[in-house]
Amino acid sequence: MDTFFIEFRDPLFGIIVFFLLLFLLSFISYWWGRRKSANEHKELENFLDKFDTTQDEANIASQVQGESITNETWLLLAHGFEHQGNFEKSIEIYLALLGKQRDKMVQKEVLLKLGRAYFKAGFLERSRQSFLQVLQNHPRTPQALHHLILIYEQLQQFGNALEVMESLTEIQGLAGCEKLYLEARQTINNPKISVDETATFLVHLYSHHAQLGYLVFEYLFTHRPALAWSHFDPSLSHRVADILWRIPTNHLDFDIIARNGFLRELFSAKGVCDLSHSSGVFELDTLITLRGCGNTKATLQFEYVCKECHQPSFFPFHRCPSCHAIDSIESIMSLAKERFEDNNSFQ
Question: Which residues contact 93 (CB under 8 A, 6 or more apart)?
């Protein structure tokens, strides 16, 4: 017994035990890393197996597996296909690169590009799976979280979008307008919330944040025009001109219209009142002059543009379909021929 304690107190014995423990920890760490890497590779293979492989995809995969063309060149080629709208080819290249690559950071980059290509092509579920695959190995990836929000928004799963928004907020800080936008869309699309409750919520939102003006007043003028007029922000008159143009005459508030120069010109051009005889806006001035001459065959039509990326659209939007900016819509007027059926045409 005394001999054992003497050996235990021996510095050489302590050094031997230390190195044995160090070797054991290194072996466990190495084994765990290999196992984790193998699991990640298996998960990636399972992810790729979810998508059917056609003969053309197999041909591209065999070309990508070769060493004659670098990965950077394949990525540039895939981006070129994507820019041309040929998402099928770009997706084939991304999938083939995923089957070839073992570097985790390269896999992450390709998965992000693949998810964006699927999103642009309209394959929302495949896009969602791609971004979830990224987050499984790289949880703090803002690009993947942001696109998940866009996907859930298009699927009208606003609860899921708000959950992802919480994670994104922890990484990037304040969510700003986007969280308010998702909450507003969730309220509007919730069938359990009445129209009056939704209208009250939107009025409260705009009065406290002065954001989402187009979304708020589009809903209010459609469902509760009297409430919309009572909380109308005159500074939005130009932006929501298309909404105002479509309001039925019996829902107009002429007292408010008479106090606003642009509204006087807009509704005089429409012919529902005679409060202005000219306008600084060419389209409105032309219509006012035509109305004065008795010509009622002209009207306004509207196109839209994003004030952030300046991309045009024929349809109104709450989130820009190009750059995904929120509340960035601007209305553009143009003259058009009035479309109506002449009763004489049926005689």
Answer: 60, 64, 74, 75, 77, 78, 81
Q: Which fold has domain 38-175?
A: 1.25.40
Calculate ∠ Cα 151-214-249, nearest 5°: 130
What is the distance between the alpha carbons of residues 279 and 330, in angstroms, rounded to a whole number?
Answer: 20
Q: Where along the chain do its domains lie?
A: 38-175
151 and 139 Cβ atoms separated by less than 8 Å:
no
State which H helix or E strand residue 344 sits in: none
CA angle, corner 175, sides to 126 and 173, nearest 5?
A: 105
Per-residue pLDDT of the chain in tens (347 residues, 90 and over written 9)? 455 444 555 666 667 777 777 777 776 776 666 666 655 556 555 554 554 545 555 566 666 666 667 878 888 888 888 988 899 989 988 998 888 777 888 889 999 999 999 999 999 999 999 999 999 989 999 999 999 999 999 999 999 999 999 999 988 877 778 999 999 999 999 999 999 999 999 999 999 999 999 999 999 999 999 999 999 999 999 999 999 999 999 999 999 999 999 999 999 999 999 999 999 999 999 999 998 888 778 999 999 999 999 999 999 999 999 999 999 999 999 999 877 544 443 33
